[in-house]
Amino acid sequence: MKDKKQLPLRSGVGIILLNDKNNVFVGRRIDNPKNSWQMPQGGVDQNEDFLQAARRELEEETSIKSVKIIKELDGWFQYDLPEYLLGKIWKGKYRGQKQKWFVMKFTGENDEINVKTKNPEFFEWKWIELAKLTDVAVHFKLDIYKKIKKELSFLGFN
C-alpha cells in the first residue's frame, strides 16, 4: 500500500437533515460494529455537482426525496481514515474525504424514510438533538461534527 500521505482525498458531500423540531437525522452503519451513528454522506459522481450528489446520496441511503435546501455550509470539511481502515475502504484509493455539507429541512412524513434500500448503508435510524451529535459520531469524524454543530448554532439551530 502507498504511504497514506500520497493518497488523495475523495470528494464528497454530507447532509444535515433537520426535522420540524430541528432534530438531526442519523443512521447506524451496517459495517460499524460499535454504537456509532452518522449523517448521510457519500461521494460525488463524475459530471455531478455537489447539490445533485447530496440529493442522490440522501435518496440512496434513506429513500428521502421531500426536502427543502436551507444552506450549503461554507468551505470544505475533511477527515482522514484511521490506519486500520486504509486500504479497506474505497478500494484503497483514498486516505479520507473532503466534503461539502448541506443543511436540509425534511418536509415529508417519517414513513417516507426507509434505510432498507437497494444497497443499504444503515440498519437503523433516528432523530437526535443537535447537542447530542458529537456524542454519537465515530471518532474519526468527530472534528467535522463539532464544526457542524458550531455552524448550525451560528445559523440559529440549537
CATH-defined topology: Nucleoside Triphosphate Pyrophosphohydrolase
Q: Assign a percent range to the helix content.
A: 10-25%
Class by SSE composition: alpha+beta
Total domains, how many? 1
CATH superfamily: Nucleoside Triphosphate Pyrophosphohydrolase
Largest sheet: 5 strands, mixed
State the shape: globular
Rounded to an integer in angstroms, the radius of gyration calculated over CA atoms is 15 Å
Runs with pLDDT <50, length 5+? none
Can you describe what's shown?
The strands form two sheets. Strands 1, 4, 5, 6 and 7 form a five-stranded mixed beta sheet that branches. The chain has a three-stranded antiparallel beta sheet with strand order 3-2-8, with no helix packed on it. The radius of gyration is 15 Å and the shape is globular. The chain has one domain: Nucleoside Triphosphate Pyrophosphohydrolase (Alpha-Beta Complex). The chain is of the alpha+beta class. The chain is built from three helices and eight strands; from the N terminus they run E-E-E-E-H-E-E-E-E-H-H. Strand 2 and strand 3 form a beta hairpin. Helix content is 19%, strand content 31%.
